[in-house]
């Protein structure tokens, strides 16, 4: 048994807190940026550094705007209906991956369309480092002692004081491992030339399936018809990803 007592604050400078969670986001963004630069150089793709910077910028906007709105709409609509000003207080926590993904896809789709670039072709590149950024985010969640798992007695169980004096699954670390596994799969698949859109839909299918499974050990925020909200939101990813992967495999 281990009692979670990690300090989420790295340093406090005259009342300004620098937190591990924020640092994880910065590291995730930096990794994605430099990975994409390395990848397009290796694959000799025609994509300028300026375009990559723009895509990263819109991706960050998608995380913040889409992630926040997704959390508000999917997980706590009644609370935010009564407290609308708190919707803007994203620093208090509450970001939805699924909402962020929808926003990132929309923002980057219209960006590529505006610049007359093939969305699916470059989405196949951009999507590869995303799981690493997500893994770092889950590490930040673990350090914060939030989004814990269900009660258990496994040898590696953790006591999260904010969740009571009980043993719980460190589901944040499971999700960290899940995201690193997805990165490994995508990186392996990227070694060979694939049909346009294959990598994007592989990411969606892999994330949807693994997130659905991890939800069984994660403390649910909302359960409907015996299925958690995270599982409900993952089902469309599984269906869309699997459908287009099969379609592309069958296409001549």
Q: Keywords for this structure?
A:
globular, 62% helix, mainly alpha, 252 residues, two-stranded antiparallel sheet, single chain, 9 helices, three-stranded mixed sheet
Summary of the model, kept short:
The chain contains 9 helices and 7 strands.
Any overview of this molecule?
The protein has a domain at 2-47 and 117-192. 62% of the residues lie in helices and 8% in strands. It has helices at 20-43, 49-75, 77-82, 97-114, 119-126, 130-144, 171-189, 198-214, 229-250; strands spanning 2-3, 9-13, 16-19, 158-159, 167-168, 223-224, 227-228. The strands form 3 sheets. Strands 1-4-5 form a 3-stranded mixed β-sheet, with no helix packed on it. Strands 2-3 form a two-stranded antiparallel ribbon. A hairpin with a 2-residue loop joins strand 2 and strand 3 (16-19). The N and C termini lie far apart (55 Å). 34% of the residues are buried.
